[in-house]
Amino acid sequence: MSLFRFIKIAHVVVHYGLDEFLLGHERVRGLRGLLKALLFWRKLDQPRAVRLRLALESLGPIFVKFGQVLSTRRDLMPPDIANELAQLQDNVPPFASDIAIAQIERSLGKSTAELFCEFDPQPIASASVAQVHRARLHPVDGKVGQAVAVKVLRPGIMPIIESDLALLKTLAVCVEKLFSDGKRLKPREVVAEFDRYLHDELDLMHEAANASQLHRNFLNSDQLLVPAVYYDYCAREVMVMEWMDGIPIGRIDELKAAGMDLKKLSKFGVEIFFTQVFRHGFFHADMHPGNILVAADNRYIALDFGIVGTLSDTDKQYLAINFLAFFNRDYHRVATAHIESGWVPKETRVEELEAAVRTVCEPFFNKPLSQISFGFVLLRLFETSRRFNVEIQPQLVLLQKTLLNIEGLGRQLDPDLDLWQTAMPFLQRWMNEQIGWRGLLTTLKHEAPQWATLLPTLPRKLNEVLNQNHTELLLAGYKGLMWEQKKRNYVLVVIALLLGGLLLTQWLR
């Protein structure tokens, strides 16, 4: 990290009074008086959360993005800071059009005139890592050329990112060493996770692959549209995808004026979320209002695929169990699912965890379901988690963030949204498909190709084992099995004799 960058960060920290976050720790409280005397001229009139947000905005796009990630980790952040950081936005001015054009031509090896019959040099959107231009491909077979969105990576951003990430990693080590909660909160893993997301965003081929997967998952959906990607026009610094016309989801008045069914949209949002999570195990993890449009046919349009989340089958099963247990107020099952999944230490007492979960959740059930915020219940559970040393699950961080976004979006469209009532039938169907004879048939169908390959090779593999001087081992194992079988047979004979004796006694009476 350059000395100039370090000096700037130190200046911002002092200017906005962020030193109080560190000096609030007991190990360094002796420095409080000294620093206060040195900074007697400083006046801090705003709350600490506001000052933190302003500091991150002044430090640039990487710190803004990190603040956005932290705002989703309400298990780590006090409520006032998490709420303030949630307001962070990528308000970044666009870079010059000639630089964008040069980037496109260098990446794709052709001039913009060869690539497009139309290209608007004025960007239509600009963010911290890229900006977007509108263009049109050349006509094919006499048809009108396809309208496309051309996303161009911001040049020269990589050195800044690497420098700032190095600083964040250093700070994470300090947090882990200084604070009693440091190891449980896994600050280095949080920064590493942020590092991975950020580098994924800097490779537009990665984003193109994410978009293609979502496009395929929702190919014939009546709820969600995902633009097609044109890979002949894609590279690490440039991505070209189908242009989508729609109304931004945040413009409620325009949606109403266009005759959109807001209640249906609200319900669609919840169903799309659960479809991505439980059916596909692959979900769009950056679904804030800036990345969502509404098409003329009342379908959602998803944009910006730099950040996606994935879940294993085990994660999906335990999540479904937890959701359904919450809906049914089965707090004991919630507690046992947490222990079974390894999210809490195995020595945790089920009864204590069950009581804590009941304390958080039970008050909400005295209200109508439409007034219950599942996102708020999650936040209360995060606070409770500290008592039980709940392990931070990196694979679930994006899921938590996305669920909060979806619920907030749904309530904005329909204040009476009943998230639980909308989600419960979906989860019950999914569980029925995973458990029981339907789940068995699905598993058999999935495993059949592997069995078809494995079964014909079993004789050869058995012969190989026998030829590798394992005969004695196999014989010993066989003898052991026979002895176990004999013991069981003896037990069965004894049981039969006892039963026979009882029957004889009854008959003699």
TrEMBL record:
Coiled coil: none annotated. The active site is at residue 286. Residues 87-337 form the ABC1 atypical kinase-like domain. It is a single-pass membrane protein. Its EC number is 2.7.-.-. Pathway: Cofactor biosynthesis; ubiquinone biosynthesis [regulation]. Keywords: ATP-binding, Cell inner membrane, Cell membrane, Kinase, Membrane, Nucleotide-binding, Transferase, Transmembrane, Transmembrane helix, Ubiquinone, Ubiquinone biosynthesis. Pfam families: ABC1 (PF03109). Gene3D superfamilies: Transferase(Phosphotransferase) domain 1. The chain crosses the membrane at residues 489-508. It is found in: Cell membrane. ATP binds at residues 124-132, 151. Belongs to the ABC1 family. UbiB subfamily. Belongs to the protein kinase superfamily. ADCK protein kinase family. Is probably a protein kinase regulator of UbiI activity which is involved in aerobic coenzyme Q (ubiquinone) biosynthesis. PANTHER family: CHAPERONE-ACTIVITY OF BC1 COMPLEX CABC1 -RELATED (PTHR10566), PROTEIN ACTIVITY OF BC1 COMPLEX KINASE 7, CHLOROPLASTIC (PTHR10566:SF113). This is Probable protein kinase UbiB.
